[in-house]
User: What shape does this take?
Amino acid sequence: MIAIDFAPVNALSKAVRQGLLDAVRALEADPDVAALVISGGPGRFIAGADIREMSQPPDAPFLPDVVAAIDACAKPVVAAIAGAALGGGCEIALACDLRLGGPKALMGLTETRLGLIPGAGGTQRLPRLVGVAQAIALICEGRVLKAGDALALGLLDEVVEGDLLAEAIARAPGVPKRRLSALPVPAGDAAADEAAAARARKAAKGVPAIDEAIRVIRAAGEFATGLALERAAFLALRESAEAKALRHLFFAEREAGKVPGLESVAPRPLEAVAVIGAGTMGAGIAVALADAGLSVTLVERDGEAAAAGLQRVADLYARQVKSGRLTDAQGVERRARVTPTADWSRLAAADLVVEAAFEDLAVKADIFRRLDAVAKPGAVLATNTSYLDLDAIAAVTSRPQDVVGLHFFAPANVMKLLEVVRPALAAPDVIATALALAKRMGKQPVVAGNCDGFIGNRIYALYRRHAEVLVEDGASPQAVDAALEAYGFAMGIFAVSDMSGLDIAYAMRKRRAATRDPAERYVSIADRLVEQGRLGRKTGAGWYAYDAAGGKSADPVVEALIAEGRAEKAIVPRSFTPEQIQRRLLAVMANEGAKALAEGIALRASDIDLAFVHGYGFPRTRGGPMWAADQMGLRAVVTEVEAAHAAGGAGSEPAPLLLALARDGRGFADWQPTEQAEQQGGQQP
Assistant: This one.
């Protein structure tokens, strides 16, 4: 037996590859060995490549050589898959003659998630099992199959309920050699293959690996030729800008939950939770919590409103059932975890209460006063505010140490980002509890300090303001949106504003009006749209006009308002290229991000990248605004920020941190949280 023991997931580091190759060769040469069993130990197999090595030159032994040795072994080789066989781990399993899985086995070729394709025969062996169309779908989606699904498709030969390793050892000597490399690709349906390729390209979102995967899979008819094409494509993609950006995000996601000072802090227990406010956001939060297996009390002002909130929850589950994401039984079970009520005394049983009421400080302060009186000692009191002062909210309670911000993004049950906002007096175990909850819900947490808009909305507000400056200076909303979509955003900023509702940002601007610096350039076009009742899609008109089917088009009314605004300021409109629009908006995002870093609002630049990728549609293949700024070059960013400052006035000044990094020839990726601590006298947010 070959046992791989390289915690935590048996990643295919150089040492693991070497050990596996040596073991296969030694056991094949041993006359006393009849067959080989490869095991990753209890609950494991091999979860893929060591991603850290991807940024280094390839180093022998190469994975294709290890897989080839398993494939060519004269003795039967059995894979005992008790856990994740992903990426290269799946490729090793596919080279074995028999694949036995435990009930918790997972299989998948997930390389496209990192901007790559399988590089050790996965694109050639998988089509021989499932056909070209299914292989395109599985590889291009990076789909992970549970044991039953893997069995149904033939990736597993059997699911063993008992002692998997003992069964594999007992059966191995009698297993016939079955090299997938020697099998033909099943005859397929050309139309089905093309349809699968079309679906994959449509969902590609700028990932070059998808086209390469389709090309190489289609070459699987001749194994040796296809294998050579696969390897060449893999090595080229490994060095691509997209793959580097996706690797950056891979590591960023693993770093985001690491908060200085919380390394040994245990979270508070969470079982019963409550949500105050059963509108669209509150219902979505309730569903996210119920999906995590928690019992949820949904609190509203009266019985009628509570019943309406439960109906919203039911509607969300009905959509998931209709789409096939849940079975009828699962939908019923999860909906049953949510109990509506208008009785505030029910909050006394909750370990966590999330307030999801109207975005108004007075409203939220009143709720927290009432909540303070009824919640049990030690309960975590969370607010879903997007902009408001967490310290002011916490101050109305007798327990500010228990208050935290949990900023969900709409739709709350779908969007992955969760900003964990840290008030000044929050207890460490409250932040630890928020992070544990995010993990339980499958959310990506980003810890933020307390300021207006926290990380995401603070930077987004500057991004939107400068998009409006570009429009007032001569660009059309359509041109700005087209430039952003060409960059990789699914939607441009003006289309997103229409979808969200222009009244939301309007209310925020009015709230800030009294404290706005008079030297800040203010573009009033969006205000005029709102004041004419143009709130976006919900009123059929905003920055765009919308037809009955939801299709958008440029609107002469908007063009007239823009022209009027320019005339009032005597602005002679000029044209902007798509690249100029992209560079300007990227620069102002990175500049405001630099200010958030220096102030300790964001712990690390990669946290800002995660916030924008997971919460604001920033294209993953660009790595986030801070990563993209590094690729642009910070000296070029400074030049663009200076132009933005000249156009936008106060609030757009180049950040001292940006200037310092550019001067030193460094990037945001080089900046460490300890530098912020030093700048702030050792204080962490």
